[in-house]
Amino acid sequence: MNIQLIPEKDLHDFITIVANAYPRMKLSTPEERDRTRSLLLKLQNEEPTTHIYGFYEDGTLRGGMILYDFTMTMFSVPVLVGGVGLVAVDLIHKREKVCKEMISFFLDYYKKKGSFLTSLYPFRPDFYKEMGFGFGTKMHQYRLHPEQLPARTKEHIHFLSKKDTAALVDCYNRYAATTHGMMKLTSERKVERIMEDPLTRIVGYKTGNSIQGYLVFMFKEAETENFVINDIRVREFIYETTEAFWELLTFLHSQKDQIRYCMINTQDEYFHHVLDDPRYGEDMLMPHIYHETDRDGIGLMYRIIDVKRAFEVLKDHNFGGIDCRLRIDIQDGFFPENQGSYIVHFEEGIPQLGRNDFEVSIHLKISDFTSLIMGIVPFDRLCTYGLAEISDSGYVDVVTRLFAWAEKPVCTTEF
Q1: pTM value?
Q2: C-alpha distances in angstroms, 40 versus 18, 85, 278?
Q3: Tell me, what DSSP letter sits at residue 92?
């Protein structure tokens, strides 16, 4: 068995494996396969942060995956994060631990590169939870009639084209640099590919040559005989200022004559406060009288692969301004080199390693610790659920405040 970069001659075999693993990706025709092969070649040859690896047995490709080098803003610190996508196993060789071997390689690959954090979009959350990945921030999907959205002015809203690529990337990266969880854009080519998609539209809040917010969206046919009625599906909604936020919403509101629903996906758990009528559109009531406002789901998952390295990289991050000498006992059966006890002294919130004494200890699985340190779930909830243990219950509030963060991580990067 061997895991290596997939050479160009084996890309068709990889596409066959992907087509069988994900039939709805529509890779059945020669044209679709050739287009996908061309895209993979561009990723392989033109994107230095993208790596296509395959699992070989006796010289034959049995599975593959794409690894991504991301720079993510964690709190206010830029950190290297490994991402993995398009994980696919030959149908004949499923349940033979091919995926397990590839994910183990993925974790070890990024630990060797100096990263402490990895991420992925799960085809089944439970499968990756068993491998130590913790849940990320939920995605909320709103289905709103355009008139439910507020209307003000949209004088700065313009359609964006290729000539706006650099300004759009600048807008995104400014937003990413100040937003916990966002991945930096390292290539304009990724934006250009979106702009080249004939089904995708981008409108932006533009003043002079500067873009301060934008919407990426697609039209979808409504389930009706009226061919002029469509829905809008918002893929990405980025804004740096309140003015950009309101004008982009006004743009959506102004489509009410021919748009049935605006489908807005957001990780903002407070978005419903913007709306006078946030109902989802089906008049559904939950007992006693609670109106359905959105549907939410679990997506991006994270995994700490090097606990010690995490605190080394975050050495200047302030963990709540708390003083605490803490021992963290990590359970990690899938990546056992990560399992063990770590003593961290927090002095006015700043972590210090290399000490031996502690005043309180906590014990939890790596999946739950990852969600905790990312600011996704508070420690006291983990204790309530029986997912974390603490040596002295009098410290529950201290540890909770230690790992609390005002915002949960947000990520709009698809991979």
Answers
A1: 0.95
A2: 12, 13, 41
A3: G
